[in-house]
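Methods: example folding runs. The two proteins below were folded one after another, and each record is reproduced exactly as written to the output file, sequence line first and structure-token line second.
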Amino acid sequence: MKLQEILDSNYPVLVDTSISETKGQKSIAKEIHKTRHYSDINPGMLTRKFSDIDLLATILQHPSSFTIPEITAELKRLEEIICDKIKFCGKKDYSNVRRSNKRNKRIRRREAETSDTSEQLLKEFQRRTFQLTRLSKQSEIQYEESLRAPLLGIVELIENEIGLKENVGLLHRGGYSTENQEDLHTDEKLISTLYYLSMFQNKKPVLLTQDSDFVRLLAVVSRLVSSNDLLPLNTKFRDSLYKNPIKLYYKQGQDYEIGLSSDEIAFDPEFLIFGTSELRNQEIKSEIKRYLQNLKNISRN
């Protein structure tokens, strides 16, 4: 399905930053992480990355498109990485390099040309990222935290127990790391926001993504929380999955295809996380019941 068709025929459409990266290629943060000089940065790579970030900006300009604060924070982190790299490369010093023959002069001239081009492109990329961050901030969807919080608690509880997300490095100043950087839990917050929109806003929300983690999160969490063991506390949750289905559109090249729709998920007859002890299963089920009861109490008020 074409992107424009999805945007024009769905509301609201949440946007994940993964669609701003070309599949199979490194992100710009990884590309520039170990570079020490502008001449180390491939201008062609930067030029290609413009189309990725411009796509995200175009999507967010559509009235159906929305983000959440964690998406804005991810873009802000990217902007900080690029700003730091610009400052670092701006302090370069080639005074220790001595070349005298004509060949080395030609090499030095080519390096200088590449350096100037990469510097201009990287600064332009930083400018566009700054604009995109502002656009994301303006596009943040409104939600009632008292209702989304229990849903987030359920998603995080199941994710922490099973480990449905891939263990990828976190974006932070200076590059990628799994340490020294707070996990924004963007995936869990996007999923819980989709549940909130379906359950309490009577919407049929859509998520645009290129991250397969979302398929696992939506499928497993929905299947477990909808299990018969949790009736009648999960009735509203179950009903909304079919009445207001959540759809994940997965980017494939230039087009998008449905990765999963919640009205296709079969409910489990019993709550059971395989590979987890019976005692632990009971503990998790009891905790989910508590969250569902909180949702029921809050929604009555």
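Second run, written to the same file directly after the first:
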Amino acid sequence: MAAFDKAQKKLLGIMILAAVFDGLTQGVLLLQESIARKALGASDTQIALIGVITNGAMLFSFLVSYFFAHRNKKWLVAAGYIAGRGIFALAFLITNSWVFLGFLVFYQGVFAIQIPVMNSFFQNRMGKNRGFAFGITRTVLILFTMLSSLAVGKLLDARPGSYVTLLSVIAVTGLATYAILFWVEAGIPYEPSPKPRAADLWKSAAEISRNRPFVLFELAFMVYGLGFTLIIPAVPVYLLGTLHFSYAQMSLAQGLFAQGAILVLTPIAGRIFDRIDIWVAATFSFGILLFYPLCFFLSYLFASPALAYLGYFFSSLGLVGVNFLWNLGTMHFSGKPSESYLYQGFHISLAGIRGVAGPLLGLLILSTIGVQWNFGISMVLFALSSLLSLSMVRRGRAAS
């Protein structure tokens, strides 16, 4: 691993600070389903819609990436704060579950701006250290998300009505995060380039689609993503409705168990990711995730909270690799650094497609044939995505 130069060290420190405030923000809404169900009486359908909003809001990321790929995005970042974080200054308006879902549309929607912008910093400013730098900042993000979630869970159990105050804090912590992103983006020089035309949008998408290795990568990710999103409505409905988890238990499951392995292993994984074949990483990551729905399936059979916690642990373990693949994997396929932002936007938009389809299909399965089928079908999809990635590993070795 090459040493960080002075500019990279400064940027890394700034991004770590942004991760601290972003973790405090995300920790509050890590319990979004619990707040919706316990505080606002959300139905199973509304719980599923939260999954659609969370994952589907990124659907238009490619449009954002296309029109801003070679332009300064500081004012886009500012608009993102106002729309998706500053809006929580009006949290006192959240008096029912439908209003809460409306706020979540804005909150989740601006990740279509935030994620590509932040990832472009690692790609364009960190050089060969991008995986390690991402791992450090991701670790800080997970740590503060976990701590925030645990604190919020305890507080909500003691004072259920405090959710309004907690949600309003997002306007403050979000301001700190987005102010940092604005400052970093404002300092990046962009060479003059032709203004992108809407008529050329599909041409750019078609060019990306002709990159066969990238298409195969996205196919494996699509299968994995469907497996993951199928159980998005099933897991909170099962934990809250069948096992009757409290806020504290949900924060323990979604905070400590779902984030613990990511917290501990991400710095190590960052070093590995800079060296390992991307298909090997995908094979192991998707394979480990198979145990996530398996444990929930067994928990359902034996009514075991312990197995549910274990399922979240395997989710955390598998997502260590998936987080790198999701955020940095597309950089292995883009031809040059200037294209990475566009590829990432394309990738996130595809995530948005499965983010809409997966939870809705999951709700259909949940409401017709039962939660155990969500877990069973998810296992099959994780296995298929791992096997597809393994086939690419073998193809690469045969070619060499």
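Comment on the second run: The CA atoms of residues 135 and 270 lie 5 Å apart.
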